[in-house]
Every structure is written in C-alpha cells, then in structure tokens.
C-alpha cells in the first residue's frame, strides 16, 4: 500500500508540475505503432522531447491503469507537453488527419494510384491493393460481386494519418451506401434494375459525359437503347475491356473479345467500368425524358444527340470535319 501511495504522489506531481511544459518550443510528430508497449511508447515520447521524464510518465499511466487504453497512430504534440495532456491525447486518440480527394470516374486501380500519390497519408498501398482483390473482404462489405469496381465512392475524405487500409475502403463503401444500397431494386421505363446495374449505368455515364448537363441525357440514351434491345455501343466499355485509354477508338478496338464490349454484346456489361460520383448515380436513377438513341462528340467539349440514325451519321460527319479543320489549323500555325 505504501508503494502504491508513493507512486500515486509521483504521478500527481507529474500531472500538476508547472515545469512539465515549456511553451513556444515547437512541435513534434510521433508515430505510435500498433502493438507498441508502454516501454516503447514512453521511450518514443522521451526521444521526441514530448515528455521529460520517461519513468515518471510510465508510473503515471500504471497508477491510473491506462496502459491498455492508449491508441496507436500519428500524433502532433508541443515540445515538452504536459504529461496530463499527452496522456489525454493518447487515450482519446487525437490522431493526425489527412484530407484526400478522390475524383469521380476513376477505376479501382486508378483510385489506388490516387492514394499512392498522397504519401503524407502513410496508408499501406500494398495492403490496399490486396484488399480490392480479396473476395471474402468484399463479401463482408455486403457486396456480392468479384470486384470493388463501382463501389469506391469518390469524395473528399478525412482519414487518420496511417489509417489501416480496411478502414479506408470501409469508409468509401459506407459513403456510397448513403446514396444507394446493394439490396435496392429500381424500376425505370418499365424495366427492373438492381443497385449493381444502376452503378454499372452510372459508371458508363461518368466515363462518357463531358458536361454535367449531359449526364441525364446520356442516361436516357442508354435506357432508350436497352428498351429497344439495341446494343449500347459505348466506347468507354471498349476502352475498359482493352485496359487502356486512348482518344480515338478504332474499328480494330471494337472487335475486342470481352463481356464488357458493348459493341459485341447486348445489354449491360457485367459490372461498373469506373467509380461513379453522386451526379451520375442520380442521372442513372432519374434519366431525362428524351427519344434520343445516339450521340457523338462535337469536338467542342460536348455531344450532339440524335433520334434517328441518319441524323447521327450527319453529326458524325460534322465531327470528323471539325477534327480535320482543327488539325489543319494547328499545322498552319506551326508553319514559319
């Protein structure tokens, strides 16, 4: 009992000590790894000049029985922070955070690359890559599909620095579930669709639309063609099948053998070809009311939509001429 009383007095002295914190001496960033014991944690804090007395800090934690309450992760402290404030931060998990923006329309592998670019986030990229191919992990998220393609919701996220990859993916998928859930069923133009099919349609809109106002119109083209049992013939699905990106899809490209090639196969591809954002999901759920069956780029950042095939052919000729004129103009500009 006497020893415990002495330890308590020492701990209280540490907490109340006016010398425990020296103001305006700067900041120190430290990483507490998962599995670090009290000895390692107190040593790291001492070495980083966050605490002055390693033994006293350990005794304080032991006396107050908080050794199993400390959270791992990245922290920022003042140099020679008061032991009480250090302990509070470690118990409450006041960890450093990072802000990461994931753009709309990225494929799964492109999303991983976006995380890799944020080296300050200290997220284990190899583990992240392994998880997106882990069918058991995907199933535990409530997704009965072989891939997370279409389910990593693009948004601006605040993650803990050094966050475990499982939590990163769970946060993105949970965010998607606030917009659409895997169990939902929908009826559009007297056709039934499940959530996976809606995400598939949204992903095609995301890769095809050049302007926000076009998204519900492109959605209407997709549904109109499905209703008439016409092949979708969407270039973005061909590029997904090829596993590459190019400005112009060739006739040879259109022959690629893949269930994702909507020039060769009727209906929807097996799954999403990108991770669609909120606007494209809404467009897929609420398409514009049109009779359009075709669209082609104008070359000016938007599309020309047509109801009839001959109108579509005329629009294609105009686009081809615009490209030729633009190329000629560029060539002339380069002449001395």
Distance between the amino and carboxyl termini = 95 Å
Q: Largest sheet, if any?
A: 2 strands, antiparallel
Class based on secondary structure composition and strand pairing: alpha+beta
Strand residue content:
5-15%
Strand order of the largest sheet: 1-2
Which parts are unreliable, with pLDDT below 50 for 5 consecutive residues or more? 331-335
Determine the number of helices (DSSP H or I, runs of at least 4 residues): 13
Oligomer: single chain
Q: Provide the helix percentage.
A: 40-55%
The Cα radius of gyration reads: 28 Å
Write the layout of secondary structure elements.
Layout lengths: L1 H15 L10 E6 L5 H10 L6 H10 L9 E6 L4 H10 L4 E5 L6 H10 L7 H7 L3 H6 L15 E5 L4 H13 L7 E4 L2 E4 H14 L6 H13 L7 H8 L35 H8 L8 E4 L5 E4 L2 H26 L2
Q: What characteristics describe this protein?
A:
about 325 residues, alpha+beta, Dna Ligase, domain 1, two-stranded antiparallel ribbon, 8 strands, about 45% helix, disordered C terminus
Task: Explain the overall architecture.
α2 (38-47) packs antiparallel against α3. The protein has 13 helices and 8 strands. It is elongated. The chain has 3 domains: 2-92, Dna Ligase, domain 1; 97-177, no CATH class; 185-292, no CATH class. A two-stranded antiparallel ribbon has the order 1-2. Strands 3-4 form a two-stranded antiparallel ribbon. A hairpin with a 2-residue loop joins β5 and β6 (191-194). With 336 residues, the protein is an alpha+beta fold.
Briefly, what is this?
45% of the residues lie in helices and 11% in strands. The protein is α+β, with helices and mostly antiparallel strands and 336 residues long.
